[in-house]
């Protein structure tokens, strides 16, 4: 095994920082426009980040260009850490957040598109910092697209090679420093959807500032809002909420399918196994929860969120059911109602969605629908195999045979996911959380959902956690976002042995 | 595929019923001794069961002797249902339990060695019926031994072929109606341990009736007690509790190891990978919880159980920690203290044990230590493989290479286990449970533990459940006990297609 190419890793970290600093400077005009004193802090953070990035890149720009797998893992893991360290500067240098663990938590929650927050009064945060906060989501979403489409399949992590088999653009079996054509096309779709949602939200009645922030937080399935009440702030404006429901659903679907749809190949969408189940699951759970909250809401459970019903109880029930289901299933985490206050069945249904997640090739987190589809098909097959041990039968996905290696990868992924979930519950109670909050926070952070249950329910936030719990949750958000293996592998002794 | 051999299945069900009726008649002397009116009901139940069994056997005694795999599944599944239907008669015919769902729940809880109860005042139940209740545990334990050692490995379920590779006695690759030599040897050990524990408990101060019942409920890892307070009734008698801790630990270890130990090959025990982890886990969690409850118990959480401290707080803390840890890890479910009242970390630690379970080849339920060992070893290996894709490395267990097929079986088992756990939580909230009780009951019933959390904590019982929830829990206990596949396979369309 060759040694690590530290120079090229450093040059990548430099480029990443420069890009990050550029987005900080984009936040600057918002601060100027609102005459905020925070503008100095944001400008300093941006210039500092760009400078550090430039120096890192400049002194390593002549690095040998050969990148091996191990360099790839380090680039991804260290890249996210570099984003986090520099990305926390706008919070710290404007005084918006003064504690270091708090800043780390909020920053990783942003980039990982989790959207859990330690801020208790979001509306008092300077607009420039709020824009930066939404920008971390949007950058994170870009990072996930390149990771999922260009890097994870090459590394063969958790069966990801399967789901992007049809991805457009050049396919290569070498890890290549150039961001592939595929990623660029998907970024264009990501950008266009964000822009269209922004326009629609503005037309529906949001301010342009709220519209741009919510559009960025939707397409990245992030979930940071500019309002303390999240999207419940617009409970008197159903159009705003239906627009967000629609774009959350799109953000939770495979971007490769959106690419085909835009090319006119709409049939590709409905022939896609994962999309079919994603769609049916959304419809089924939405209808179930509509019925539950319209006719069976537990009167003992009172919500603190105001719910005007401009079009009656049925529309309101359907809208809030659809909003929460799509928000949690796509792991966006926007809130229009407190689902923990409906009834126990609704809570259990919503919590089970924490473990599903959106589609592969989207910006959503969690286990992903396709992995569940394959796991369930494989389970049925295992039962069949008990009866016909010699029959040659295999799991089929989108019309093709799925290899045993990929199924093995997927099963291993889920097993590790659940073991980390159970172990993290124990760790979080050790770090001071009560049991219900601990195990739901563990599932929520690992799946990059955002809200949890108990003291971390949709109307609460993560401010009351101990510093240790905040840092551990940050770690969970990071490994969840990077599909576990990318980070875990760097933490094994094997990784460092040959250096 | 050949048709099912219904005649031989019926003759097995007949033999099972006769054996069951024989144990009912064994309960009869206890009722006579205490001059109970229940004696008529028990006698009638016993005679009825024996008669039904005799008729079933008599008219099918000349059945063709060839048994195929599919017959095997049906014999196991229907055998347990037959036990349940006849086994509920002593409750119903003595009037101890009057509702049919209640009787089914208590009976399946007995045979599955779960030990969850719908009885609210155990001490008012006639002694003959109490003995019968403990006998269902003991019969269930016998069933599990034959299932694990003689049947599951042949059916290749969940990697069970691996753990009994060293089992003594003739090994055959054909499903054979004769109960193997192996099972007989292990039954002898099971019986001897029960008898020794009975003697020790009597010496330590239990009445002979309590001693025999607790011995049967210990070796089967069942957990039914004759006292409302369970083993907390003997909180002033540490010897009784240490004896039970010791035998619970033995009951949760592989009986094949006990066989070798009795043959003088003690080194086999400490060379066994599963035993090592089982032992270390017990010690580690016991010490952690001792520290927690002696020095960090949350004063806000008050327990209703009386805790005299005859040898001081440290001994008492250690004893209750060890008791609860061994009781939950081995899925026995006896109670000397309410672990949900210690603190949140202790609750989380104890709850995570729900998913581990004892050793394969024991009477304990749950996922089993060995599956976790293999899953964790495989996860480490998957990480290693990412770095060395071409290296030929494989999971090793007890010094040998574990085949990919077995690992695949184990991963599939765990995935199905967790999916059923999550789905059952939703179903149980639908059937009226609150969220915390639902998801803990789901884990407890599936793992055959007994106590759960919330309204089903160790000081509560399952009486308040709706009939639907009781029947669903019964189903969970049954499929958990039969290692999922045995029952699930009978529920697939594949199973019935060729008939
Ligand atoms: K999110
Ligand atoms: K039990």
Automatic annotation (TrEMBL), chains A, B:
Coiled coil: none annotated. Its main location: membrane. The keyword Transcription does not apply. InterPro entries: Cat_transpt, TrkH. The chain crosses the membrane at residues 7-26, 38-60, 72-93, 138-165, 186-209, 239-262, 277-296, 344-370, 406-433, 471-496. It is a multi-pass membrane protein. Keywords: Cell inner membrane, Cell membrane, Ion transport, Membrane, Potassium, Potassium transport, Transmembrane, Transmembrane helix, Transport. The keyword Transmembrane helix applies. It is found in: Cell inner membrane. It comes from the Bacteria. PANTHER family: TRK SYSTEM POTASSIUM UPTAKE PROTEIN TRKG-RELATED. Belongs to the TrkH potassium transport family. This is Trk system potassium uptake protein TrkH.
């Amino acid at each position: 095994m060759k040694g690590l190419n530290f120079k090229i890793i450093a040059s990548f970290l430099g480029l990443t920082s420069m890009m990050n600093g550029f987005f900080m400077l984009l936040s600057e005009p918002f601060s100027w426009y609102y005459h905020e004193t925070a503008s100095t802090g944001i400008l300093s953070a941006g210039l500092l980040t760009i400078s550090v990035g430039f120096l890192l890149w400049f002194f390593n720009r002549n690095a040998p260009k050969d990148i091996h797998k191990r360099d790839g893992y380090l680039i991804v893991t260290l890249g996210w850490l570099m984003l986090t360290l520099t990305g926390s500067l706008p919070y710290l240098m404007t005084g918006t957040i003064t504690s270091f663990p708090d800043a780390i938590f909020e920053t990783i929650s942003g980039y990982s598109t989790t959207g859990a927050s330690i801020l208790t009064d979001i509306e008092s945060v300077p607009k420039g910092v709020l824009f930066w906060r939404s920008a971390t989501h949007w950058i994170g979403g870009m990072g996930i697209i390149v990771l999922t489409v260009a890097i994870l399949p090459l590394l063969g992590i958790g069966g990801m090679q399967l789901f992007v088999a049809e991805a457009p653009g050049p396919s290569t079996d070498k890890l290549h420093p150039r961001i592939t054509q595929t990623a660029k096309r998907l970024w264009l779709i990501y950008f266009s959807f964000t822009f269209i949602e922004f326009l629609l939200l503005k037309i529906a009645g949001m301010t342009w500032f709220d519209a741009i922030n919510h559009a960025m937080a939707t397409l990245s399935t992030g979930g940071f809002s500019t309002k303390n009440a999240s999207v419940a702030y617009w409970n008197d404006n159903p159009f705003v909420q239906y627009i967000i429901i629609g774009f959350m659903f799109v953000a939770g679907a495979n971007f490769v399918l959106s690419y085909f749809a835009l090319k006119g190949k709409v049939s590709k969408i409905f022939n896609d196994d994962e999309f079919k189940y994603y769609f049916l699951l959304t419809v089924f759970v939405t209808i179930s929860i509509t019925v539950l909250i319209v006719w069976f809401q537990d009167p003992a459970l009172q919500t603190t969120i105001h719910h005007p019903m401009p079009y009656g109880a049925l529309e309101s029930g359907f809208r809030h059911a659809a909003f929460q289901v799509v928000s949690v299933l796509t792991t966006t985490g926007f809130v229009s109602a407190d689902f923990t206050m409906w009834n126990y069945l609704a809570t259990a249904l919503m919590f089970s969605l924490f473990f599903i997640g959106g589609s592969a090739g989207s910006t959503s987190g969690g286990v992903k629908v396709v992995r569940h589809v394959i796991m369930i098909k494989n389970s049925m097959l295992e039962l069949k195999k008990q009866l016909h041990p010699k029959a040659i039968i295999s799991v089929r996905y989108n019309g093709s045979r799925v290899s045993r290696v990929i199924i093995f990868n997927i099963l291993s992924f889920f097993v590790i996911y659940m073991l980390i979930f159970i172990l993290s519950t124990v760790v979080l109670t050790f770090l001071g959380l009560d049991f219900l909050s601990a195990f739901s926070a563990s599932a929520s952070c690992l799946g990059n959902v955002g809200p949890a249950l108990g003291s971390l329910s949709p109307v609460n936030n993560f401010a009351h956690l101990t510093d240790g719990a905040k840092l551990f949750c940050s770690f969970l958000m990071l490994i969840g976002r990077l599909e576990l293996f990318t980070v875990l592998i760097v933490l094994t002794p094997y990784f460092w042995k040959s250096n």
